[in-house]
Amino acid sequence: MTSERKRILVTCPPMLGMIDEFRGAFEEKNLELTAAKVIQTMSEAELIETVPDFHGWIIGDDPATAAVLEAGKKGELLAIVKWGVGVDNVDFDAARKLGIPASNTPGVFGREVADLAMNYVGGLARQSFFIDRQIRTAFAWPKPAGISLADKTVALVGFGDIGRNVAKRLLAADMKVAAYDPYFQNPDNLQVTAQNWPDALQEADFIVFTAPLTPQTRHMFNHDTLRQVKRGVRVVNVGRGPVIDETALIKGMAEGIIHSVALDVFEEEPLPANSPLRQYDLNIFGSHNGSNTSDAVRRVSLKAIDLISEFLES
Prior knowledge:
Strand content: 15-25%
Number of domains: 2
Order of helices and strands: EHHEHEHEHEHHEHEEEHEHEEH
Structural class: alpha/beta
Shape: elongated
Radius of gyration: 21 Å
Strand order of the largest sheet: 8-7-6-9-10-11-12
Largest sheet: 7 strands, parallel
CATH topology of the largest domain: Rossmann fold
Number of strands: 12
CATH class of the largest domain: Alpha Beta
Helix content: 25-40%
Number of helices: 11
CATH architecture of the largest domain: 3-Layer(aba) Sandwich
């Protein structure tokens, strides 16, 4: 006799974008899939209403708060898996107190996010995104002088899996890398200099953020650090939006201190239509999409399915 199929809710947009490819994996593990209709995240109120109907939940960037998990515990919820690396949106302490097994999928996107970070560094250096837009929309033929990457200094904030992969790409471009991470380790013996934030920030031609969001990293780039940067610095963020105080970023651009920024993440997502960041033509914007390659989504989604299945079987 077949045991009851456990119902699984998936709210992670990259996984949902390829969800048909994973239906077989759910079937093999006797799991009943429900693919949520979501562009970025579900609201806390929607989740409180929805999550209790499911035994397992594969989470994207949704607010998996204590209130949501408590509602789930009162219903059918038995286990959760945070799809991907970032965990700032999930109250793991609440899950532990409620006895809900929980995990993320760490160390899975280093190369993909690093590829995007390097793409942004090159794009800011050579203004290639700006040139593309001018040709497409203004029928212009601009030839701005960029800067060379070789011998430029990068302040690399965060030296975990993503940060180390970014460092490899920066070093391949003959750049100098100073890594800022209180838990600095260099298992690959990369030619990087360990620094304490914000020491020597005035030497950086680029600041690249790969750090996770924690109480210690929230707004680590702020109005105080703005006063320490080199005039003309270029800023990249592929970590978490609130690591940067955007009011400081906007002030830096308005005063000509910051040359341009490339942001895959923001304090508010999607980027508001009235954000002052939009008025600077050299800026590059992403849609919190740094990890989203079909290869990575496939790899991590299958891992998430395995984890949720293991939790439900134990």
